[in-house]
Amino acid sequence: MESTERNWTLPLLWTNLAVAVVVVVLLLGNQISGARELLRVLAYALVYANLVALLGTLLVGGLVKRLARRKLPLLPAVAFCICGSRSAIQGLALISPSFHPDMVWTI
């Protein structure tokens, strides 16, 4: 039986693995020019990816458990989370002018 205290470790593991794959692809495509840029890319990518994964695991995981206990459909929860994440990213774009504009329109 899985410990309830460690239910966030697997999503963080997958998140860090995905960041590693992206960094390897960037290295193979010669998109990273040196060690300093590699460290900068790794730092930003790992910090932001882990924050999003941790918040998503805690918030969405709790929401899904509550809905499952009440035997309610999960589709409204998924739609709410998608709309909420899109709104959060657009909010970041409004607050921070340095936020990447392509990120907002990609979603």
Compose a concise summary of this entry.
This protein is mainly α and 107 residues long. The chain has two domains: 1-69, no CATH class; 73-107.
The helix-strand sequence is HHHH
Average pLDDT reading: 76
The unreliable regions are none
Q: How far from one another are the termini?
A: 37 Å
Helix content: over 70%
Radius of gyration: 17 Å
Describe the structure.
The chain has about 110 residues and is mainly alpha-helical. The protein has two domains: about 1-70, no CATH class; about 75-105. The chain is about 75% helix and about 0% strand. The chain has helices at about 10-30, 35-70, 75-95, 100-105. The N and C termini lie far apart (about 35 Å).
Draw up the topology in text.
Elements: H1 9-28, H2 35-69, H3 75-95, H4 101-106
Helix pairs in contact: 1-2
